[in-house]
Structures are given as C-alpha cells and as structure tokens.
Amino acid sequence: MAAQQATLTLVGKSGRTYTIDVYAPDAAGTQITFNPSGAAGATSPSTLRVPEQCIVFDYSIAASPTATGVVLYNNSGAILGGALRHANCLSSLANRQKLKIPLQGGDFISGLQHA
C-alpha cells in the first residue's frame, strides 16, 4: 500500500475536542507525523504537544500502510495500551473501538509504526 492519512482525536478535560491530522508512511519502523492545523505530510513534526489533560479518544486511518500498526509513546516511553493495529482503526469501520488513553497537559506524544 501507500502512505496513508489518518486522524487522531483527543478530548480535553475542558470538553474541547482536538482533531489532529496524521501521516503514516508506508514502512515499518518509521515515525508517524502530526499536524494540528492542516494535512500532515512527511515533513510534519514527529511529536505533538498535548495542550491540556486529554484522552486519546479515536484513531482512524483510511487504509492500512505496509506497517500493521503504530505504538504511541508519551514523553519517549511506550504508552500501555497504546499499540494500535491499523486494521482495527480503519475509518470505514463503524464499530471501531473508542480509545481512552490518558495524557497530561504538556506531554509530548509520538508514534512508531511496527511490522
């Protein structure tokens, strides 16, 4: 497959929803990139600073790239429960599991794709 666009949805303690565009390259062992203000691409930042205490509510991707999933990291440490399989997060799945991964305001998150 080819590189894919994805969306990461965070819900803040304030009730605000943050929709973050994600770029998932077409290779295992690569970092996903983030853009909170437009389409993410290969040159977008590989880390995202969380604006307030949030939960990762949803991750949706249009199609699965070569990598089978992504592991989310919080301040350089893997997040328990943060291994997401692309096949389970396809945007075409109406019954996609909603996530509840907690994050603190000011945390930096990143994601590394795995085979």
Kindly describe this structure.
The chain has 115 residues and is mainly beta. It has one domain (4-114). It has strands at residues 4-12, 17-24, 33-35, 48-49, 54-61, 69-74, 77-85, 101-103, 108-114. The chain has a five-stranded antiparallel beta sheet, with no helix packed on it. Strand 2 and strand 3 form a beta hairpin. The two termini are 13 Å apart.
Compose a concise summary of this entry.
The chain has 115 residues and is mainly beta. The chain has strands at residues 4-12, 17-24, 33-35, 48-49, 54-61, 69-74, 77-85, 101-103, 108-114. A hairpin with a 4-residue loop joins strand 1 and strand 2.
List strands and helices in order, with pairings:
Elements (H helix, E strand, L loop, with lengths): L3 E9 L4 E8 L8 E3 L12 E2 L4 E8 L7 E6 L2 E9 L15 E3 L4 E7 L1
Antiparallel strand pairs: 1-2, 1-5, 2-3, 4-9, 5-8, 6-7, 6-9
Summarize this structure as a short list of keywords or feature phrases.
globular; mainly beta; four-stranded antiparallel β-sheet; 115 residues; five-stranded antiparallel β-sheet; single chain
